[in-house]
Design the sequence.
């Protein structure tokens, strides 16, 4: 872990350039056809999801293989409240967020006491059981059929009917999400989390309540996942259990590891690249999940730090110290 | 009102499927003991066992016995490929625990998708090993397949016991589980042991899959439930102990069967997962640890 130095060149590199890049991608998307707009929209949604996941995995050093549970919660919450009860989408999104946070706190309290593979299996089971419930609870979720007729995002009478308008909102939500995660990371709370990632025992000795901070990070990640689920429901207008199944876990981890775990913009870059893959690999329609799995395994083996680990390839001014630090990291 | 026959019947069914969970659980333990790795793709071996056996039966038309016997080495080979292509490179690079777990989950999804693409997504089954039955004892039906499961399960445990106590390779595996570095210093090829443990564990999963398919069905997606339930069985038994995993599996199978009778079929997995959480939180060393005096420390 390298500690962030706040200097003007750093803020240039960490804020201005990435935001400009995001806006450039948005601009390209807005001036191109519908399909690209959809793909970039998915990228933004997954960007939100992965930013949350990154918070829990990258900064806190924990692992959850069941974040899809909270995306499903958000997605189904928004879908049911808006399509069946005609709630305002924004209100439905906020209520789903709160619901996911509360459930994450209740489920996480016992679960996060576990470590290692026990934690991994418990969180994995969380995703499985949510998937199962979304299939079995027919009267609410319509099982495999899925829910359709979900209205697009909007406030009151103003609905974002066009996909391009929605994309602008999705991008803004994503940028706000990244901003919030950065603010949280650099706060007292975030420093405590990074201390836990470094060493739980040491963090404990410093007076950090490890269990409580872990739970808080888990709730934050769940809220992000829930927002992503809600956005997905409104963007596509249809959800089914498969959307939030185990392949979502693989997809999101591929994005996270490709971009680089524990970096600010890594999840966004990963989400963008992986979302554009189907366009590049059109011939591989049925092989998609296989390709994602292979890519993920390859990254895990050969470049566990993701693309950000390859940043040494890009020429940029470096002091000897930072080079040394990167070598040591 | 639930009558006695129904309860006993569900107990019998529970023992059958529980033994399968136990075999999967032992598979988890074998790899874990050799390497400290938990292979989340364990369930995939159960699926492959059933699918490969079915494919050999229908496409090549070989008799069931031959198909069953041929499937086990095929699946064991797939297990070895996973070890060589996925686990070993990460192991050599000293990858984080979570990264290895994630890689095995990715492997599972990959194999499931490949199975859909090559063999199709339709559920399938094949006949019981012995025709006829079920055996009726006072209205309780016991299918002959249950005896096959019992017999083969016992045989597997016996063979494993002999393997771990009598053969050189088995004893080397046990040495690895106690202290890998010391084992390496004594000249045990630890890497080969990891490969061996994957083959063994995949073979066990395949046997479980072949045994269980006649009683239900197999499809590309049966791996995950078997994997999760096998893991729960292993945890109930105290991770690492083969006998404990088998007993834990039976306990889990019976509890699931009871939950189906009392609450309905939809609650099968809820029962299993609640059991997982209860055991994890209250008996992290497994529920049989209380009966052991000292117990071997891990």
Sequence:
């Amino acid at each position: 872990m390298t500690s962030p130095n706040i200097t003007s060149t750093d803020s240039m590199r960490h804020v201005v350039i990435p935001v400009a890049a995001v806006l450039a991608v948005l601009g390209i998307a807005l001036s191109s056809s519908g399909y690209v707009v959809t793909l970039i929209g998915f990228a933004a949604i997954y960007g939100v999801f992965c930013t949350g996941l990154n918070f829990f995995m990258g900064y806190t050093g924990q692992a959850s293989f069941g974040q899809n549970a909270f995306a499903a919660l958000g997605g189904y919450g928004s879908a049911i409240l808006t399509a069946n009860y005609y709630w305002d989408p924004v209100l439905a999104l906020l209520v789903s967020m709160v619901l996911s946070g509360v459930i994450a706190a209740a489920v996480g309290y016992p679960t996060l006491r576990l470590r290692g593979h026990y934690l991994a299996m418990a969180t994995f089971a969380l995703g499985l059981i949510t998937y199962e419930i979304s299939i079995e609870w027919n009267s609410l979720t319509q099982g495999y059929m899925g829910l359709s007729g979900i209205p697009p995002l909007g406030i009151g009478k103003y609905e974002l009917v066009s996909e391009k308008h929605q994309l602008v909102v999705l991008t803004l939500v994503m940028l706000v999400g990244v901003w919030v995660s950065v603010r949280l990371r650099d706060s007292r709370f975030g420093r405590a989390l990074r201390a836990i990632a470094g060493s739980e025992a040491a963090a404990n000795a410093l007076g950090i309540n490890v269990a409580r901070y872990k739970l808080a990070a888990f709730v934050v990640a769940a809220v992000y996942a829930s927002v992503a689920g809600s956005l997905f429901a409104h963007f596509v207008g249809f959800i089914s259990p498969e959307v939030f199944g185990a392949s979502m876990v693989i997809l999101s981890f591929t994005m996270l590891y490709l971009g680089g775990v524990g970096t600010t913009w890594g999840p966004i870059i990963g989400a963008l690249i992986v979302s554009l893959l189907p366009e590049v690999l059109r011939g591989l329609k049925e092989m998609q999940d296989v390709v994602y799995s292979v890519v993920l395994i390859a990254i895990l083996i050969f470049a566990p730090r993701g693309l950000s680990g390859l940043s040494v390839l890009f020429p940029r001014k470096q002091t000897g110290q930072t080079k040394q630090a990167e070598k040591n990291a | 009102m639930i009558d006695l026959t129904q309860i006993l019947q569900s107990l019998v069914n529970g023992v059958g499927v529980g033994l399968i969970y136990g075999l999967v659980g032992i598979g988890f333990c074998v790899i874990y003991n050799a390497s400290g790795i938990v292979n989340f793709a364990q369930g995939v071996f159960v699926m492959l066992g059933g699918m490969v056996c079915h494919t050999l039966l229908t496409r090549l038309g070989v008799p069931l016995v031959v198909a069953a016997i041929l499937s086990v080495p095929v699946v064991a080979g797939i297990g070895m490929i996973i070890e060589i292509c996925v686990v070993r490179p990460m192991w050599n690079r000293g990858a984080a625990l979570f990264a290895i777990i994630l890689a095995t989950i990715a492997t599972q999804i990959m194999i499931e998708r490949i199975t859909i693409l090559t063999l199709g997504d339709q559920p399938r089954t094949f006949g019981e090993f012995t025709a006829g039955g079920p055996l009726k004892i006072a209205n309780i039906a016991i299918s002959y397949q249950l005896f096959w499961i019992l017999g083969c399960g016992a045989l597997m445990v016996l063979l494993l016991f002999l393997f771990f106590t009598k053969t050189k390779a088995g004893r080397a595996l046990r040495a690895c589980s106690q202290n890998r570095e010391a084992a390496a210093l004594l000249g045990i090829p630890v890497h080969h042991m990891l490969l061996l443990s994957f083959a063994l564990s995949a073979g066990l999963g395949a046997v479980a899959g072949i045994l269980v398919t006649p009683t239900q069905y197999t499809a590309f997606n049966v791996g995950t439930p078997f994997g999760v339930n096998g893991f729960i069985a292993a945890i109930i038994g105290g991770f690492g102990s083969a006998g404990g995993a088998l007993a834990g599996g039976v306990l889990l199978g019976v509890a699931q069967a009871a939950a189906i009778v009392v609450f309905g079929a939809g609650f099968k997995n809820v029962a299993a997962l609640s059991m997982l959480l209860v055991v994890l939180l209250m008996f992290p060393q497994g529920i049989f640890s209380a009966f052991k005096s000292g117990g071997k420390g891990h």
